């Protein structure tokens, strides 16, 4: 039981997300995406494809997502960051936080804001699952993906299997622990995806488009070795879904890559944007090699 509790506490780290890196922000714009829900976004830059940032859960999961990366990337292309329903300054969520709902709300937001596809989606932590859902449901509108320390639908499932407990045990205990914290939105986001975590399946039709893809895994020992082994395997499977991808493994960082190695994430985004523009296999940049 001690090992299970330790695993559960470690899995909570997947609520960590991109942190704030810039003091100047573009103005906040708000758009009605239906069902009484208003989402807020900020945007900057110009050109395409548009980079869309999707954060994880936790303290820094709102409109400020991607600020540090935007500063790193300068005037590379157009950037959009937004706050999911329930996170200020967007309105409260009016429907269950399922993968199709999250993807549809983002799709409507981009459409209403006049942000035309294709998009390069950057997902951190839980945001990695959300952008994969978007790419699966709207494959023709996605030009590339960057998954920075992405959560995975089989993470809790494999944790249950490792501990020899019933499917759904680890995620249930994780949610119970989070209930004691002042973050009901994160609890709801994880809870509404309980069927996904318990089954280890996104439950979506279709598959990821074959677009430029970078998966980044942080192997700094801030989690048990057994979990890091599972995570590296799952991230490797994601990388294998693209014929134009790479899997960056760094020992310098743990989960919060944007704080410890923002240049690594920025280089990954830059490579995907340039590869998407070329629409052919793009030479992998030297600065974005796995850390030793």
TrEMBL record:
Pfam families: Abhydrolase_6. It comes from the Bacteria. InterPro entries: AB_hydrolase_1, AB_hydrolase_fold. Residues 68-268 form the AB hydrolase-1 domain. This is AB hydrolase-1 domain-containing protein.
